[in-house]
Amino acid sequence: MDIQAAVERLSTQLPLKARQDQLPPAVKKLHQDILYSFIRYGRPPTREELGATLAPGELAKGLQRLGDEDLIVLDDAGQTPLGAYPVTSEPTPHEVTVQSKTFHAMCALDALSVAPMFDVAVSIRSRCHVNNTSIRIDMQGDTLLDIRPDETMVGIRWQMPTSVAAHSMCMEMIFLENRATAEGWQDGDTENISLFTLPEAVAFGKDFFLPLMA
After folding, report:
1. Is residue 74 located within the same domain as residue 41?
2. Taking the model in full, what pTM does it have?
3. Each residue of 56-67: pLDDT tens digit?
4. Pick from 28, 58, 84: which residue ends a domain?
5. What's the domain count of the chain?
6. Which residues, including other chains, have CB under 8 Å from residue 75's CB and lie 6 or more apart?
7. Residue 163 has what pLDDT?
8. Tell me, what's the pLDDT at 204?
9. What is the Cα 81 distance to its own chain's centre?
10. Closest C-alpha among 189, 172, 210 to residue 1
């Protein structure tokens, strides 16, 4: 699939940028502060840290707005951010390490998006969705430095999210250890399942996520 077409398709199903554009400036900054916290500290910010952005009453409203828009994932009490696409403190198959700080990405595409989104060095540790083979990817910005196995691909089963995208559609955005495995998983369903080489997936993720930091 063409990268621009992929970005447009995902933006239809999960319109993060369009939702962010509708936020008041202070709530947009709150969203970006949550994202930056993972890069700085390897975790979501505490409420005390977020208090530097908004007063307590406005903070609660801001977090609720971001959660309602599915720009962030909140805890069960709806008070503490657990993650913001593409990063999360919830366990997933996709570990991301930035400057010795390890957290998780919500899906394979998200894992590949962290380095170009923040222009940092990233090490990704994950597994093939089909064969459980270990996958390791090292990146600097949008440059892939090391890939093991070197034929690793990303597969996406296109679907509309049910409630929180991180707990539904993201589960079908996966790493696959080589093209043969990927094509077997796709099983000829090119309408609903797309396959991307890693350079294609990096370009896709960058174009989708980087505008959130503008």
Report:
1. yes
2. 0.95
3. 789 999 999 999
4. 84
5. 2
6. 81, 82
7. 81
8. 98
9. 15
10. 189
In terms of C-beta distances under 8 Å and separation of at least 24 residues, what long-range contacts does 29-36 make, across chains too? 29/53, 30/54, 30/59, 30/62, 30/63, 30/66, 31/66, 31/71, 31/72, 31/84, 31/212, 32/212, 32/213, 34/66, 34/72, 34/81, 34/84, 35/84, 35/87, 35/212, 35/213, 36/118
Provide the residue count of the chain: 214
Q: Does residue 8 register a pLDDT over 80? A: yes
Task: Count how many Cα atoms sit within 13 Å of the Cα of residue 6 in the half-sphere of its side chain.
Answer: 24
Mean pLDDT of the 162-182 span: 95
> What type of residue is 149?
P
Model confidence pLDDT, tens digit, residues 27-37 = 999 999 999 99
Domain limits at 137? 87-213
Query: Which DSSP string do the residues of 104-167 spell out, in sequence order?
Result: EESSHHHHHHHHHHHT-EEEEEEE-TTT--EEEEEEETTEEEEEESTT-EEEEE-----SSGGG
184 and 191 Cβ atoms separated by less than 8 Å: no
Are 159 and 53 found together in one domain? Answer: no
Per-residue pLDDT at 203? 98
Query: What is the token pair recorded at 80?
Result: 């503490």
Residue type, 187: D
Question: Which pLDDT score, from 0 to 100, does residue 57 have?
Answer: 82
Q: Which amino acid is at 185?
A: W
